[in-house]
Please model this.
Amino acid sequence: MPNKAHQPAQKILILGGTAEARELAERLVAEGHKVTTSLAGRTIDPLLPSGDVRIGGFGGAEGLAAYLLEGGFDRMIDATHPFARRISENAIKAAVLSGVPLEQRLRPRWQKQPGDRWKPVATVKAAAETLPPGSTAFLALGRQYLDAFVERADCRFVVRMVDPPATPLAFFDHTLVLGKPANDPDREADLLSAHGITHLVCRNSGGPAGYAKIIAARRLALPVIMIERD
Ligand code: NAP
Model:
């Protein structure tokens, strides 16, 4: 049956977990396609996209390929976070195994702007080693990236997480800020100032969702230790 864009309606699997994936699902559903978004299940209370949603791993590339074939999907779109590498690799393999076409929609990285004081590093370990002694670092990083900083007992850490950690964080000195990043650079700047932050540590994730903190750091002339994608 043709959809509202006068193309045949398709059954589409979106590999999601990002704001862009939610926007894409809404658009494709509005065009009349049958859309299923897949989430990894990392967030306790995720914002749910339009269309159907399934949650949890597939069991590797083979599992994803089997899911695509059993579900009769016409195509798959990888709209996952650019640092979520394994699922993107699995998507490439699953497309080959299943014959279901894959489209990649990964965001471009942020580019340094005048006034930015970025120190690019290749790994989380390098980011931890780069912090000067006595610094107060804002870690805008997921739980899986925090262990590298635990040995820096000479620094203070402010850690922002969407959900409370399942086990207590092992830092010598830290403050936990629960919640999502604000979209307003003024609010992000207020947060950084209120905690006496001397360094921001984050990944070059690209996209608008986390960019307010970068603008805030620029306004405050704060150094940013930027973990780059290779
Ligand atoms: P990852 O390391 O690339 O994936 C690890 C495993 O998690 C995959 O092998 C897969 O398990 C499962 N998985 C990942 N994304 C999935 C999805 N959309 N649907 C079903 N299973 C999925 O991924 P990650 O870095 O842990 O990120 C997990 C999810 O969070 C992604 O969907 C990503 O878009 C979102 N996210 C990640 C970040 C980040 O910083 N990494 C930030 C924001 C949002 P199986 O092999 O069992 O299929």
Notes: The pocket of NAP is lined by residues 15-18, 38-40, 42, 57-60, 63-64, 80-81, 83-87, 90, 142 (CB under 6 Å). The mean pLDDT is 94.
